[in-house]
TrEMBL record:
Its EC number is 2.7.1.49. It comes from Flavobacterium taihuense. It comes from the Bacteria. Coiled coil: none annotated. Pathway: Cofactor biosynthesis; thiamine diphosphate biosynthesis. The lineage of its organism: Bacteria, Pseudomonadati, Bacteroidota, Flavobacteriia, Flavobacteriales. This is hydroxymethylpyrimidine kinase. It is an enzyme of class 2 (transferase).
C-alpha cells in the first residue's frame, strides 16, 4: 500500500444505488487520494428515490471487524453513518478510542432517510453527551440538530464560541458541530462550523446545484478524508463543501458523479 495514502474507514450502511452509505464514501475517499476501508452497519433496500427496508448488522460483528482492522493497520480518521441506537453507536465509538485515541471521528448524524424512514431515536441525553464528547465533529442539518438538541433555536448571527449551541442545547457537549445549511430557509446553503473557541461561516460557491441522493454522506466522507490528510478542521470543511458542490453540479439526476 502506498505510504503517502493515509487509511480512512467508513462505518455506515450499504446503499445498492451507490448514492449514499459506504459505496458513496469509498468513492469520495478515492478521489481524495486516501485509502478507504468500510464496515457495513446495515444492508438496505433502496434506490435514489425510495427507501423500503433495512437489515442491521449485529453489533458484535461490527466490533470484531473494528478490532481486526486496528490490529493490522493505523487508521487516521473514521466516518460513522447510520446506526440503529445510541448504545450501538456508543460501543463503536468507545472501541475506536480504546484502540486508537488519536483517530479522528466524524459522525454524520443521519436520523432518518429523505423518505422519512427513521433510523435512530435519542433514548438518553446523558448517553448522547457521553458519545459526543468522544467525537471530533458532527454534521447535522437544521432538522437533525433540533432532534439532537430540542431547545436549539437558530440565530440570525453567529457568536464567537459554542455558547450558541450550549445555551440552547447542552452545556456539556464539547465536540465541534458543522451545521449544514441545506434545510435553512433563511440562508440556503450557508454552513456554520462551531468549534470550542470560534465559529465560522462557510458560504456556498454557487447557487446552481441539482438535488442529489447522499450529498450529506459525500460531505462528511470528504471532511473525514481531509482530516486524515492533516488539514485543520476549518479547511477540511471548506474543501469538502467545494467537493460536494461539484458533486451536486455533476448532472441533473439524483445520482451524482465523483470528481475533484
Amino acid at each position: 500500500m502506498s505510504e503517502n495514502r493515509p487509511i480512512v474507514l467508513t462505518i455506515a450502511g450499504f446503499d445498492p444505488s451507490g448514492g449514499a452509505g459506504v459505496l458513496a464514501d469509498v468513492k469520495t475517499f478515492e478521489q481524495h487520494r486516501v485509502y478507504g476501508f468500510a464496515i457495513n452497519t446495515a444492508n438496505t433496500i433502496q434506490t435514489e428515490n425510495e427507501f423500503s427496508g433495512i437489515q442491521w448488522t449485529d453489533l458484535t460483528f461490527i466490533l470484531k471487524s473494528l478490532e481486526k482492522l486496528f490490529n493490522n493497520h493505523t487508521i487516521k480518521a473514521i466516518k460513522i453513518g447510520i446506526v440503529p441506537s445510541l448504545e450501538y453507536l456508543k460501543q463503536i465509538v468507545f472501541t475506536i478510542k480504546r484502540h486508537s485515541p488519536k483517530t479522528k471521528i466524524v459522525w454524520d448524524t443521519i436520523l432518518k432517510s429523505t423518505t422519512e424512514f427513521n433510523f435512530l431515536t435519542i433514548e438518553s441525553r446523558n448517553d448522547l453527551t457521553e458519545i459526543l464528547n468522544q467525537i471530533d465533529l458532527i454534521t447535522p442539518n437544521y432538522n437533525e440538530i433540533k432532534i439532537l438538541f430540542p431547545n436549539f433555536t437558530p440565530l440570525s448571527c453567529f457568536t464567537n464560541s459554542l455558547t450558541f449551541l450550549r445555551r440552547g442545547a447542552c452545556e456539556e457537549v464539547k465536540c465541534s458541530v458543522l451545521l449544514k445549511g441545506g434545510h435553512n430557509p433563511n440562508e440556503m446553503g450557508v454552513d456554520y462550523l462551531y468549534t470550542e473557541n470560534e465559529v465560522y461561516q462557510i458560504l456556498p460557491k454557487t447557487g446552481e446545484c441539482y438535488e442529489k441522493h447522499g450529498s450529506g454522506c459525500v460531505l462528511s466522507a470528504a471532511i473525514t478524508a481531509n482530516l486524515a490528510l492533516e488539514q485543520n478542521l476549518k479547511t477540511a470543511c471548506e474543501q469538502a463543501k467545494i467537493y460536494t458542490e461539484n458533486y451536486l453540479q455533476s448532472n441533473p439526476t439524483k445520482l451524482g458523479f465523483h470528481h475533484v
